Amino acid sequence: MANLKDIRDRIKSVKSIQKVTKAMKMVAAAKMRKAQERMEQARPYSNSLDEIIHHLLPDIDRNMLPLLEIRKVKRKAYLVVCADRGLAGAFNSNLLKVAQREIDAFGKDNVDLFCIGKKSRDHFTYRNYNIIESHIDFWAEMDFDNAMMIGRSIIDHFINGSVDEIHVVYNYFVNVAQQEIKSEILLPLTYDSSDSKGLDRLYEPSKEALVNTLIPRHLNVQMWKYLLESYASEQAARMLSMENATSNAQDMIKDLTLQFNKARQAAITTEMLEIVGGAEALG
């Protein structure tokens, strides 16, 4: 059994760690509330824009815009949206497993990677994947310009014919306790025409003019959505992870305190037996 000093030091150490995890939980909760507000403000606009384009695409000639060109898929690009930091449970690892599985299924030599977050960049760099760009250390000052900058290079990669399809793997914020990993095709834009049947809308100006105007904006909004969803999901995952760590630390403190009391009682009992034994020997 460990001596009293060792147990006391362990209790002190666990209490110190518990203070850190509790503080990190509070910080993550504050960041999550702000991120959730921004995300919920962006969702209606993103969904409405998506719905309009969904309705327009079946009625126009796809050759009018390079972003709509459907090609035989020989090479793909993947945008993998992770975090810069860990301590968020399985937030990063689960997403990276999904992304790597999809990439390996298609063939890693036929895939270009755009990595967002240090965890994504480090994971694929270590495994020698073909990384075209990586973006890190911008989450604290994240704004719409970041999304436009990232989106511009990815869109150019598709337009110049380097790849035939672009996928995005990111965490979708369902609620505080649940984040869902999603893999979506960003380009080319494709919709099922049967979904828009029965809708009768009039557009002014023409549908072609609207598509030319809305699609670049739509892609920027989609990139912004991916960043917002991922950041809110990261903070929610970190908050829950730190809450569990704080709770586990409290359980460890209870167990160590019980162990300390048992060790102290054993030491007292041993001393009393020695005193009684010495007294009897003198008698």
Number of domains: 2
CATH architecture of the largest domain: 3-Layer(aba) Sandwich
Low-confidence residue ranges: none
CATH T-level topology of the largest domain: Pyruvate Kinase, Chain: A, domain 1
Number of helices in the DSSP assignment: 5
**Helical content class:** 55-70%
In the CATH hierarchy, what is the class of the largest domain? Answer: Alpha Beta
The CATH superfamily of the largest domain bears the name: ATP synthase, F1 complex, gamma subunit
Structural class: alpha/beta
Could you state the order of secondary-structure elements as H and E?
Answer: HEHEHEHEEH
Q: Tell me the Rg in angstroms.
A: 28 Å
Mean pLDDT: 86
Question: How much strand?
Answer: 5-15%
Major sheet summary line: 5 strands, mixed
Please give the number of β-strands: 5
Query: How are the strands ordered across the major sheet?
Result: 3-2-1-4-5
Key features?
Helix Hairpins; five-stranded mixed β-sheet; 2 domains; 283 residues; alpha/beta; elongated; 5 helices; Pyruvate Kinase, Chain: A, domain 1
